[in-house]
Write a structure and sequence with these properties.
about 15% strand, single chain, three-stranded mixed β-sheet, disordered N terminus, alpha/beta
Length: about 325
């Protein structure tokens, strides 16, 4: 496994992390601040912030955000400030995600930041009945066809891909991790935390998960010089959903697929479900990705095995 250690960075090196107060932002910041100067931006407070991290509590759409670029000579920007809440109004998330990302790209150019790392997701490919077994980074981003709430993330991903070609002097990295488990609260972990999770009758799709600490390590690896491009980031391997549920000792509720989506839609509408109906497609069809490019170029290998990755979220139930 790659140690993720940068090559003797000078003490004045500064990394900016947007969304630093989020679960992943905190893990990445605490992983980096002992080796580098870490500056964080988030409109939320950062409780428990280590002394070595500078935190600016501001919105990435505000004028104050540009001041951070002006006040610091940045080696890299790690952009994690993507807001994903299926219950929020789409126009609000669209404005926050797209406007904030556009501002980040603009300031990277204006203030000559040599490196940009952007968090996307392997979910942008979308679970489809015709998906190949392992999707590579050049596969089409089809998730928005059935899941409108993910269209902002696809738009951010495509915006950064265009930026990659328009400004080749900036080493732009887009990371597309599989389902993240650990201290996070997202649709996959909410599903796996259910005491009696649904399972669609006749379907047992292959699933990929990654520990939040391993994803942070992949981001550290992406900070290495001369690394650029799009990378799928995978954990310990793809396994059937039924195997994960057995590891968690869950009692499964078999459900016909057509009924499941309609029922979950009603439960979501009345706030009796913790994830929306389109997420059912991940229990229905395959959406597994090829992580070989991250292994070969970033030198990334997950440290957590499957059992530890799956059971990590139980600590935060």
């Amino acid at each position: 496994m790659s140690s993720g250690k940068l090559d003797a960075p000078p003490a004045t090196d500064t990394i900016l992390i947007t969304g630093v107060s989020g679960k992943l932002g905190r893990v990445v910041a605490k992983r980096l601040y002992k080796d580098l100067n870490v500056v964080g931006v988030d409109r939320r407070p950062f409780p428990g912030k280590p002394r070595g991290i500078t935190h600016y509590q501001c919105d990435v759409r505000s004028r104050r955000y540009e001041d951070v670029f002006r006040e610091h000579s940045l080696r890299a920007v790690v952009h994690l400030n993507i807001f994903h809440n299926p219950r929020a109004k789409s126009e609000l998330t669209h404005d926050f995600n797209l406007t904030g990302t556009q501002a980040t790209l603009e300031y990277c150019v204006r203030y000559r930041v040599p490196k940009l790392i952007v968090l996307s997701s392997a979910d942008v490919y979308g679970p489809q009945p015709r998906n190949s077994h392992l999707l590579t980074e050049d596969a089409p981003l089809m998730a928005g066809a059935q899941f409108p709430e993910i269209r902002d993330l696809i738009a951010v991903d495509m915006l950064c891909n265009s930026f990659f070609w328009k400004y080749p002097e900036i080493e732009t990295v887009v990371l597309r991790p599989v389902h993240i488990l650990g201290s996070v609260r997202n649709a996959p972990s909410n599903y796996l935390r259910l005491k009696y999770p649904w399972k669609l009758i006749g379907f047992d799709p292959m699933v990929q998960v990654i520990h939040i600490e391993d994803l942070a390590e992949a981001m550290v690896s992406a900070l290495k010089p001369k690394v650029r491009g799009v990378f799928n980031v995978v954990g310990p391997g793809a396994i059937p959903l039924s195997t994960i549920l057995r590891l968690l000792e869950r009692r499964v509720l078999p459900m016909p697929a057509p009924i499941a989506k309609r029922l979950l839609g009603l439960l979501w509408r009345f706030r009796l479900a913790s994830f929306p109906a389109p997420e059912i497609d991940f229990l229905h069809h395959v959406c597994t990705v090829d992580g070989s490019r991250a292994r070969e170029v970033l030198g990334f290998e997950p440290r957590y095995n499957l059992r530890d990755t799956v059971q990590s979220m139980l600590e935060y139930s």
